[in-house]
TrEMBL record:
GO terms for molecular function: transmembrane transporter activity. This is Sodium:solute symporter. Keywords: Membrane, Transmembrane, Transmembrane helix. PROSITE patterns: NA_SOLUT_SYMP_3 (PS50283). It comes from Staphylococcus pseudintermedius. It is a multi-pass membrane protein. Belongs to the sodium:solute symporter (SSF) (TC 2.A.21) family. One of its GO terms (cellular component) is membrane. It is found in: Membrane. Its main location: membrane.
């Protein structure tokens, strides 16, 4: 969570939202929305990791948990 949040803080796309806002209100709203999106994204990734821990307790390669979950859980049409 901390690593992702710090990465977002230095992201050029985030600062571009602030500098291109037509008014202060728009810039503040974009900052709040980016913060909410970042928190939501982090929480979703943590939930996926916890689900993987419960569903696949003996998984060998923990670096590929998200891909393993996708291949085991999602139907073929959603895999892409």
């Amino acid at each position: 969570f901390v690593t992702y949040t710090l990465g977002v803080m230095v992201g050029q796309d985030i600062w571009q939202r602030f500098f291109t806002g037509k008014t202060k209100r728009v810039s503040k709203a974009s900052g709040v929305l980016v913060g909410l999106y970042s928190a939501l994204y982090s929480i979703v990734m943590v939930i996926v990791g916890m689900c993987a821990y419960v569903l696949f307790p003996n998984i060998q390669n923990t670096q590929n948990v998200f891909a393993h979950m996708a291949f085991e859980i999602l139907p073929n049409g959603l895999l892409g």
